[in-house]
Amino acid sequence: MTRDPQSSPSASAPDSSAQPLVLLKKVNKHFGELHVLKDINLEVARGEVVVVIGPSGSGKSTLCRAINRLETIDNGEIRIDGKELPAEGKALAKLRADVGMVFQSFNLFAHKSILENVTLGPVKVKGMKGNAAKELAMSLLKRVGVDNQAQKLPAQLSGGQQQRVAIARALAMQPKVMLFDEPTSALDPEMINEVLDAMVALAKEGMTMIVVTHEMGFARKAADRVIFMADGQIVEQAKPEEFFTNPRSDRAKDFLGKIL
Ligand code: ADP
Ligand code: MG
């Protein structure tokens, strides 16, 4: 996708390219007594690819969901391209369109064709004309290698194909940042690479990405930075090579010992 930094000027932020695209400041979140996100500070630059890893229950999904406001936060600040996420309504829908999300389960609409799955958002949320949406959808489906499946229903596709459709669907909203929450962990092993390859290609094209995954190959190939989370905190962050060969904290060492 061609990137046009001039396309979304913001009155409040004249030099929008200098500020982080995603900014979290002292973000806290509880589920009842459970403190799930603890003073999270995070800045993701335009075009940066950040891989988030950490033990189960450490708050990775909650972090993603908070960035997209699928989850509220108790306090702190979350900004996308300088703008704080509004609580609800049209403004939220619009800003949410800036943040594409791909989940572990593909969540495609079961009774709509692959093509309709991808055109629905642009038409409904962005008010795009049907033909333009179709054209966009077909080009995105082609990009992830499933354009020949456009007329089928999701159940007729393999898991790997469905997940690539989910990526195309998210891209159809022309997001500024893409969040991936364990996008390959529900897939059969032989399908993991076709999805990771699509993600690597996206990273190479300059998309800003936050990716929760334990796929070290992807992190090594595509990540600018690895963030290690444990117990609701960012414990450590480094370039992938450095993190995997020389983790500093005991928790990261322990975790890597289990998954590598
Ligand atoms: P991760 O993605 O790293 O495995 P999560 O963000 O899913 O971690 O969960 C962090 C913690 O918050 C876990 O202890 C989980 O059980 C808890 N949790 C997540 N969602 C909810 C919820 N909706 N209600 C209560 N507890 C939750
Ligand atoms: Mg999770």
From TrEMBL:
Entries under SMART domains matching the protein: AAA (SM00382)
UniProt GO molecular function: ATP binding; ATP hydrolysis activity; ATPase-coupled polar amino acid-transporter activity
Membrane topology reported for the UniProt record: Peripheral membrane protein
Keyword field: Amino-acid transport, ATP-binding, Cell membrane, Hydrolase, Membrane, Nucleotide-binding, Transport
Domain (ABC transporter): residue spans on this chain: 22-256
Subcellular locations according to the entry: Cell membrane
GO cellular component, one term: plasma membrane
Gene3D superfamilies for the chain: P-loop containing nucleotide triphosphate hydrolases (3.40.50.300)
A Pfam family reported for this protein in Swiss-Prot or TrEMBL: ABC_tran
The organism's place on the tree of life at top rank: Bacteria
PANTHER family for the chain: AMINO ACID IMPORT ATP-BINDING PROTEIN, GLUTAMATE_ASPARTATE IMPORT ATP-BINDING PROTEIN GLTL
Protein name: ABC-type polar-amino-acid transporter
Source organism per UniProt: Arthrobacter pigmenti
